[in-house]
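Morning F.,

Quick status update on the modeling queue. The single chain you submitted on Monday has been processed. Sequence for confirmation:
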Amino acid sequence: MDQPRHAAVFCKGKRAGLLTKTAGGYEFRYEADYLSAPDAAPISLAMPLRREKFESRELFPFFDGLLPEGWLLDLTCAAAKIDKNDKFRLLLHTGQDPVGAVSVRPLEDESHG
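Structure tokens below.
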């Protein structure tokens, strides 16, 4: 089975953008509909609202901060059979119900890339 490469990012329940795992790292782009909403808010101070995509060789620090740490990371990885270095898969597994306003969900339709 192919690994997911795209994740929908939600802010306060509204779809805010798309996080993509690429060959060279990661990309995040806000959705046009989200940007045009009067109540649109950035998901992070480090990722202000803009049309241009954000790119990083490593998982963006904001998303990395949503991941479990320490013993919870070890427990989660063991239970889900996820390598702790596979941060994207780990984010998809744990990011659906985090503390805070932002959630990350795997895309059902992988036809974006």
